Amino acid sequence: MAERVVLIGCGGIGSQLAGPLVRYLSRRPEPRPLLVLVDGDAFEAGNLTRQACAGGDLGTNKAEALARVARSAGLAVQVVAEFVTGANVGHVVRERDLVLLAV
Fold first, then answer.
1. What is the pLDDT, as a whole number, of residue 50?
2. What is the model's pLDDT at position 81?
3. pLDDT tens figures, 5-39
4. Which has the closest alpha carbon to 6: 39, 35, 41, 47?
5. How far is 100 from 103, CA to CA, in rounded Å?
6. Whose CA is closest to 49, among 23, 16, 9, 82?
7. What is the rounded distance in angstroms from the CA atom of residue 20 to the CA atom of residue 23?
8. Is residue 64 within a helix (H) or strand (E), and if so which, with residue range?
9. What is the CATH number of domain 4-101?
10. E strands in the chain
11. Which one of 3, 10, 51, 90 has the largest count of C-beta atoms within 10 Å of its C-beta?
12. Cα gap 66→83, rounded to integer Å
């Protein structure tokens, strides 16, 4: 069974962590890990100076934007385009091998 890695928060910290994480996971042997990206926010113009996003990502959900990069590296990606709350945290982290909190 493939490992399951979840990154909660795809903004300032999470977007910077995503690059090395994707490179590491894409070099893992088959079956490659599933990467779950979680964020309920969208990229805004003010994010361009501190987050790993491009002008074309403006208005796009942060997890969706990072998912494009991860998929281009050959990873299986699941996007949870919502904020983590008390109501959904169990669903987000259940059956995960590694949970990274970047908020």
1. 76
2. 97
3. 999 999 889 999 999 999 999 998 888 889 999 99
4. 35
5. 9
6. 16
7. 5
8. helix 62-72
9. 3.40.50.720
10. 4-8, 34-38, 76-80, 98-101
11. 10
12. 16
Asked if 81 contacts 36 with a C-beta cutoff of 8 angstroms, the reply is no
pLDDT for 20 equals: 94
pLDDT digits (tens, 9 = 90+) for 38-95: 999 998 887 777 776 666 778 899 999 999 989 999 999 999 999 999 999 999 999 8
- Residue 78, strand partner residues: 36
Enter the tokens of residue 8: 């909660």
**Cβ neighbour number for residue 53 with a 10 Å cutoff:** 20
Q: Which residues pair with 98 in a beta bridge?
A: 5
CA 10 to CA 63: how far, in whole Å?
Answer: 6
Question: What Cα–Cα distance (Å) separates residue 41 from each residue in 55, 58, 97?
Answer: 16, 11, 25
2 within 8 A of 28, measured Cβ to Cβ: no
